[in-house]
Write a structure and sequence with these properties.
Blueprint (H helix, E strand, L loop, with lengths): L7 E2 L2 E9 L3 H10 L6 E6 L3 H7 L7 E10 L3 H11 L8 E8 L2 E2 L4 H20 L18
Antiparallel strand pairs: 1-6, 2-4, 2-5, 3-4
Length: 148
């Protein structure tokens, strides 16, 4: 048997942002400024909306750039917002973006990063065992509504 193992990451999302050509660098920079680690940029050609928007006096270039960034659940909202603003998606014909939950991710993770990630859990367990027992009360937060 091999001693190789797969470490799965969970609680992650992928943000896909499709913007006008030459806007991807701004979108990636904005995402990195708020904590995103990296991005994949691909080139695409858009169709459909271009003709309709052209009738409204807005010219839309068919050349697009697609930015994909994988983020943790905790950083997803701030990265999404930063990308939206940097891509100027609040203006007609500038693009679209969406976010999808990922079931699992597998990639190389250095041993020291894995050790660091599991260390807080081990410390918390040790602290909980040493502390006098208290009655725990459960709190529930309402689901966060997106939009509006």
């Amino acid at each position: 048997m091999s001693d190789r193992q797969i470490t799965y990451l969970t609680d992650a999302l992928i943000i896909t942002c499709i913007v006008q050509a030459s806007h991807a660098d701004d979108v990636v920079k904005a995402a990195q400024n708020v904590g995103a680690q990296g991005a994949t940029v691909t080139y695409a050609r858009g169709t459909g909306v271009r003709e309709r928007m052209g009738l409204m006096g807005v010219t839309i270039d068919e050349q697009k750039e697609m930015v994909r960034i994988i983020v943790s659940q905790e950083q997803s909202d701030r990265v999404f917002e930063a990308m939206y603003l940097a891509g100027e998606l609040d203006k007609p014909g500038m693009g679209i973006m969406f976010m999808n939950k990922l079931d699992r991710i597998a990639t190389y993770i250095p041993d020291e990063v894995l050790a660091e990630a599991s260390a807080p859990k081990a410390k918390a367990k040790a602290k909980a065992k040493a502390a006098p027992k208290k009655r725990k009360t459960a709190t529930r937060r309402p689901a966060k509504k997106v939009g509006k």
